[in-house]
Amino acid sequence: MAAQQVIPSPRLVLVIEKASGQPVSRCYQCHKCTGGCPVTGFMDLMPHQVVRYVQLGLEEDLLKSKTIWQCAACRTCISRCPNGIDIAAINDALKQRTLARGVQPALPAVAAFHQAFLNSIKGKGRVHELGMMIAFKMKTGSYFQDVLLGLQMFRRGKLRLLPEGLKNRERFRALWQGEKEGQR
Amino acid sequence: MKLSYYPGCSLHSTAAEFSASTEAVFRHLGVELQELEDWCCCGATSGHSLNSYLSHALPLHNLILAEAAGEDLLVPCAACYNSLKAAQAFMAAGSQEALELNEWADQALGRQYQGGAKVRHVIDMLADPTMQGLLEGRLKPVLNGLPLAAYYGCLLTRPPKVASFEANPEQPQLMDRLLARCGATPVAWSHKNECCGASLAIPQPQVVVELVRKIVAAARRAGAKAIVTACPLCQTNLDSRQVNGEEALPVFFITEIIGLALGLNATPWLKKHLVDPRPLLQQQGLRAVS
Ligand code: SF4
Ligand code: SF4
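Predict the joint structure of the above. Result:
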C-alpha cells in the first residue's frame, strides 16, 4: 500500500471532545478497545482507529465509515480503556455530525431505525414497537425481512396493536422542546 | 415495603412476561410496587445515538417523577436502568449543559432534579439484604440441579463506574447466586457479558444472528441447558435469533426462575416465549408447569 501523508489538524478533536465529553487526546493506541469489541468483523475502521482518526482530523473518512453506525454501544471499550475513553460516545457524536452535515450514512438502515424510534417516542412519549417497525419498514423498503418472526411475536401477544401514551403530554412536549431552547 | 416501579416500553410489549413475573415475585414477597405515573420512554440506544439532549432529558423526566414519589425506583429493563444511571451521572457531574437541562425541566415539569432518586435494577434489589431476608425460607430448590448460564449482557455492568452494582463487573455473580438458591447449577462460562447486538436486531439482523450464535455456543459448551437474562433486549434476541441446526436453548428471565422457586404459576409467562421452555422444566420434574 502506498504511504499516505497525513497532515494532522487539531480542529476535529476539539469539536468531538466537546460533543462526546471524551478525552480523545489521551488515547495512546494500545488497542485494548478493539481487542474486546464484539462487532469488529462488521466494521471498516477499528475502534482504536476511530479515536486516532479523530486525533488526526480525518473527518471525511469518519463520517463516511460504517463503524460509527455499526457500534452496538456495548461499552466494552470504555470498561477496558486505560484512559477511560468511551468510543460509543465518540461514535454518537460522529453520527450526529454526519446527519447535521447532510452526509449519507454508510449504514442507512441503522440511521433510519434510530429515526423511526425517536419519532415513535415524540408523538406519545412511549415507543409503540409495532408502529415503529412499520415506519422503519416503509422507510427502508425491507417489508419482508422478519415478517414470520413478527407474526410469531404477534401470536404470543408480544406486540400491542395500539400505542399507549402519557396523560400529561403537554409537560412531556415542553421538555422535548428544550432541545431547541437549550442548544442556542 | 414499598417501591416505585418503572417498567419501560419493552415490558409493556415484547417483554410483558418480564413485567408480569417481576410484579408477581415482589407482590408475593409483600413488597408493594407503585407504577410511576406518566413515565416516558428512556430514549434507549436511539436516543443517545442521534440526540444528546434527549438522551439526558427523557430519563431525567422519570428521575424527577421518581424523586417526587420518594421511594426507591425498581427497574427491570437493563436498557432503561442504564439510561437512568447515565443521566444521573451526567447530572451529578454538573456541567453547564446539565444545569441548563435542569432549568428547562423545572419550566416544563415544574420541578428540578435534586439528585435524590435511588435507581435499583431487579437483580440489585433482589440481592439487597432486606430482599434476601424476605426470600429466606421461601425459595425452594425446585430446579433439581438444572445447569443454567446466567447471561448479564452489557447494560447492567458497563460502563462499570456508572452502571455496575457487582463487585467485579467483568465477572458478575449476583444472578448466579440467585439461580443457585433456586436449585439450579449456574455454569462457569465465557460469554456472561458479551454483547447480543441489542437494537441492531431490527436494522441488521445478520449481525445479531452472529453474536447470538457465539453466545449460545458458549453456553452449550459450558453444559448449560438454558440461558437466564435480566434484559428484555437480550431475551428477545436470544429467544428469536437462534438459527443453528441444534435444538434451540430456552431463554428465561431471572424473575421467572425466582417465581418458579417461590411456587408461583409461571405458565402464563412461559407461554409467551418463542423457544418453549416448558418441556425442559417438565423433564426436570417441575410437574406444575403446563
Ligand atoms: S483502549 Fe483507550 S487508549 Fe487504548 S487504543 Fe483504545 S481508546 Fe486508545
Ligand atoms: S461500544 Fe461500540 S466500539 Fe466500543 S466495544 Fe462496543 S461495539 Fe465496539
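Residues 108-164 of chain A form one domain.
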